[in-house]
Write a structure and sequence with these properties.
The complex is a heterodimer of chains A (154) and B (746). Chain A is an alpha+beta fold. Chain A has 2 domains: 72 residues, Beta-grasp domain (Ubiquitin-like (UB roll)); 72 residues, DNA polymerase, domain 1 (Orthogonal Bundle), CATH 1.10.150. Chain A contains 5 helices and 5 strands. The longest helix of chain A is centred in the C-terminal third of the chain and has 19 residues. Chain B folds into 3 domains: 172 residues, Aldehyde oxidase/xanthine dehydrogenase, molybdopterin binding domain (Aldehyde Oxidoreductase, domain 4); 147 residues, Aldehyde Oxidoreductase, domain 4 (2-Layer Sandwich), CATH 3.30.365.10; 324 residues, Aldehyde Oxidoreductase, domain 4. In chain B, the strands form 7 sheets. In chain B, strands 10-11-8-18-15-16-17 form a 7-stranded mixed β-sheet. Classes of the chains: A alpha+beta (154), B alpha+beta (746). At the A-B interface, helix 1, helix 2, helix 3, helix 4 and helix 5 of A face helix 8, helix 10 and helix 20 of B.
Chain lengths: 154, 746
Amino acid sequence: MKLTVDGTEHELDIEPDMPLLWVLRDELGLTGVKYGCGIAECGACMVHIEGQAVHSCQTLAGDVWGDVTTIHGLASPGTLHAVQDAWITHQVAQCGYCQSGQIMQAAALLAETPDPTDQEIDDAMSMNLCRCGTYPRIRAAVRSAAQALRGDTQ
Amino acid sequence: MSRAGKIARRAFLTGSIATAGGVAFGVYMYRRPSVNPLAAGLAEGEAALTPYVLIRPDGVTLITPRADLGQGAAHVQALLIAEELDIELDQVSLDPGPPSAAYYNTALSREALPFASTNESRLAETARAVMDAPIKFLGIQITGGSTTVPDGWQKLRHAGAVARETLKAAASLETGLPVSDLRTQGGAVLLPDGTRLPYTGLAARAAEIDPVTDVTLRDPSTWRLIGKPTERSDIAAKSTGQQSFGIDVTLPDMLFAAIRTNPRQGGEMLAHDASKAKTMRGVHKIVPVTGGIGVLADNSWRAMRAVEAINIDWGPAPYRPHQGEHWRALENSFTDKRRDSRHRNDGDVEAALAATTPLEAEYRAPYLAHAPLEPMNATVRIRDGRVDVWTGTQIPRFVQKNVARITGVKSAQVHVHVQMSGGSFGHRLEDMMVRRAAELAMQADSRPVKLTLSREEDMAHDYPRQIAMARGRGSVSGGYVQAFDLGIAMPSIMRSQMRRLGMPMIGADLQIVAGAWDQPFAIPDYRVTGYRAPDLAPISSWRSVGASTNGFFHESFLDELIHEAGADPLEERLRLCSHVPSRKVLEAVGEMSGWGAPLPEGRGRGVAFCLSFGTPCAEVVEVTVTESGIRIDKVHVAAEVGRVIDPVNFENQVQGGVIWGLGHAIFAETTYDDGMAEQRNFDSFRFMRMYQCPEIIVRGLENDSRVRGIGEPPVPPAAPALANAIFAATGIRLRQMPFVRDMDFA
């Protein structure tokens, strides 16, 4: 089976029903993608397929329909995505375990909706669970990332 | 046993002021500094100037022994050392260090004493001083009880200062200049002519001399780091997927493991059939573990899938199997026979209540899983008589001891590498996952084994927060609260937990009444009684421990009495409050929230206060009744911590604590059926999401002379402040958690 992840094509001898999460973590060593619940409730495993945020724990390897981007490939090497930059500025993380997924969700939201309302931010980010309770900082970081991204493209 | 050992043991077992005279020798003995655990591993040119500062020719490492569970412990410990060491945070690397008696926690033991943290009498201070010695003797390197900052405040700054002065002495020897001519800055000793001698170059000389221990700590006016916003040392790694957690440990030739143990926690496996699992792809070996079975495979998913394919007969639960029986056990525990403590007994409650028809109310709080987002895991390698353990833990010394016992090697041969934790909330005070991983590694032919619990396996074995009930009786007089009598029943958290740690539990369990008996209110007739229910499901410390339930009980019932008296909830609390720093947090939230300003119909404000872990914290919650249920608009929080060491992390911790308190109070419970926890994933164990999260405004006060922790104290006031706000908005009094049982939330 062939999978393209973060711009690199991999030839893999794996079961087609292995969830993408475990392919990424255990077969490819991309451990920034996190296992939290296995049932698409927490969002810690979020990656992009063709730019769309998906739960990799509920996406079977055989069903992957396009190029996969993980937290490791979100920005070009040596640079930060605007969302990551905002996450650092706002010092969002506590334990940080959910933040890869939060960042992937936010990046997908802003790619599709560059100027989201507070309601749109809440709706999208409510897919992701944070047990430490960093929601107020996530909200602020998404707003400033949106601003930065719009500034870059205008 | 030696005489000194006997005395110290006695001091620990009783831990009471009655032995204060008797343990003087023990106190003296065990006040000697512990051996520096870094000394053994040093190479030529390296220096371990204290157990907290390691200087090598290629860099400076600060040892941060309190586990980072997400609360920023590593950063705050490093900051305290670096302040005195005169080095910048981007010039050092951090390491949690080895398990060692040198990293004992004195602040933790203070919570076990029957003196409220506001009691600064000579008796209370003597008892606290005596407790320090036995804890140091036992070398309990525990992270918990919001003690990282109180415990490290002097100790870590002192360590930084000792290292600084020793490096200056080394530079003086090197240059022939007097120490008084030398300054330190940015990780170097500065000579009068401006020459910089980096610490790394002075390590070899510093290692040859005795550390300079007569040091003076910096005046607060000169602080560079304390109280200033700093960038947390882990923030960049945690924003880019680069932070490695225990679950990410990867070693050459490693096997991936999954287990299933009896979901009736502590029960046995009676029989199993693994014939199908054996044939599944990637399965290396199927092996027994205590209470169940494990699969060693070449991938975590293959291991989890194979272990699910094993048919297993489980034995019965070693406790009452049904939730209803647990509640009945609590209901039947309000008896003289089960009375555990009555450390608050002011005035004459019985006489006051006999003179009137008392107001009565009953409250309930459920079991709650800790459920940190990183499922429990541990990696163990047993090779050539040496055992290596990689795991996120709050109890590295116990892990070391338990793994040594299981694997049959000496403790010195067990090397615990503490990993960054993806949350804990008290869950990592247990080490079940490490014990099972050690059993698996013993059957893995010297290969390393990474055990990852599935979410379901983790939550079936969570050792949840205690279940608890309270009964209040009280009366009012002339518009004021007159009598307050609260009985609280729960099983003993400390007994359940300490038994698993192999430690004795002597005397009353003050966690049964923590956050209630020790509140700074001068109610004329005021009594708090703890009742120890029989042991039910095994339980453990959950963020804010006893106060997590008792803050709700105490502040809800006080609110009911204040309402009965016709008084204002904030004004009456201020009138009753006898402790100046606590009054100031109440005044602060009053001012922040515009308390007293009228609200439109359908909105309500509630206030609650709790002094826990020595930190007074008050919260005002504002709610609106909407068509789809209660919406929480805003929370104002004020907490008194003596010093806000890192204002950014302080705010994040307080906001997180409020969300933790509110999210569980509204949505979550763990219940038992047929001996098994029913909620084993986040579909049934619900928690607050972004769209439900209110704006949370935080203020840290610095009026008290003692420095306090902030990880737990924001939790206890959150639930009662919300319940009191809902009462103000709707007239409905919520007396059981989770509130979603009785009320819709938007």
